[in-house]
Structure of Mitochondrial fission 1 protein:
Amino acid sequence: MDAKIGKFFESIGTFFIAGDQIPLCDSDVVIGCEHEVAEAEKSSSDEMKKECRMRLSWALVHSKRPEDVQRGIAMLEASLAGTNNPLQMREKLYLLAVGYYRNGDYSRSRQLVDRCLEAEPDCRQALTLKKSIEDHIRKDGVIGIGIAATTIGVLVGGLAAIARR
C-alpha cells in the first residue's frame, strides 16, 4: 500500500516538474556557429553557407536565452519561403516548432509539428516534441482549472462570511 501511495505522489510531482527531452544549447555553441557562418559567408559555396545557417538556427532555437530563440525563429521563417527540398522543409518546420515551444507558444508549435509530421509521420524528434507540447498544454489546463476552482472557493467563502454577519 505504501508503494502505491509513493507512486501516486511521485506521479503528481513528475507532472508538475517534468522537463522535456528537447536539448538546450549554451551561448558558447551559438557564438561558435555565428563565427562559422561569418567564415562561410566570406568564401564558401552556397550549399556550405546554407548548412552553416541551419546549424546556427538549430543552436539559436535550442538556446537557453529567449532573445536567441527569437532570432532563430526569425531566421527560419525568413528562409522557409525559399525552401524546395522536402527534407529541408521538414527540418525547418521542426526547428520552428522547437522555437515556438521554447517561447511558450504551444498552439503555434503544435501546428508546425503537425505539418512536419505530415511530411514524415514517423519522425521521432517531431513525435517527442508533440508529446512535450501536449504535456505542457495539459499541465497548463490542470493548473488553470485549479486556479479557477480556488478563486471560486474564495468567492463562495467570502460570500458565506458576509451572509453570516
Q: What stands out?
A: The domain at 20-140 is CATH 1.25.40.10 (Serine Threonine Protein Phosphatase 5, Tetratricopeptide repeat). Residues 11-18 have pLDDT under 50 and may be disordered. The chain has one domain: 20-140.
